[in-house]
Amino acid sequence: MSTAQSSSPFPLALDAELLYTQVLDAVRALMTPDALLVGIWSGGAWVAERLQRDLALPGSCGVISSTLHRDDFSSRGLAGADPTHLTSAIEGRHVVLVDDVIYTGRTIRAVINELFDFGRPAKVSLVALADRGGRELPIQPDFVAARLALLSHQKLALARDEAGRFVFSFKETV
After folding, report:
1. CA–CA gap between residue 23 and residue 89 (Å, rounded)
2. What pLDDT, in 10s, does the model give residues 39-94?
3. How many angstroms separate the CA atoms of 98 and 47, rounded?
4. 13-172 adopts what CATH topology?
5. pLDDT digits (tens, 9 = 90+) for 8-38
6. Is the peptide bond before 75 cis (omega within 30 degrees of 0)?
7. Model confidence, pTM
8. Where are the domains of the chain?
9. Strand, coil or helix: what is 69?
């Protein structure tokens, strides 16, 4: 597990592709015959799609949205999120949830609620590229490739370049 910290407002460099290779190795170890890969919309879904391909897993990965179970739904509404699309039944399966950046834990809580709307998995594991700190709920990933400390007004976002490679951007929010 990598740790990236800096005295400047943002880390000097956070190589999303390098972190992806670490997540790939971690997910390879987690995937059992009964496991189902599910990406959290949107960045986590990008990572899960690539993991599915790079691990040569059959079929396609699932995508799950937190929209309908968010504790701020009344103020956010549907917020343009794609609906949940699970590629197979989750009842009794090991679900490997994939996220890009973990922050407060509220998205993960909402995603787990959404997941249980579709059945009761035997186990849920969580992996992420980065943990930016600031947890508000007692939710921790089983594997995270990098941990860093950002202030609440700073944002870490995953993007894809034209070639499909992952890159992080850092932004100040107000």
Report:
1. 24
2. 999 899 999 999 999 999 999 999 999 876 655 545 555 555 668 999 999 999 99
3. 7
4. Rossmann fold (3.40.50)
5. 455 457 999 999 999 999 999 999 999 999 9
6. no
7. 0.87
8. 13-172
9. helix
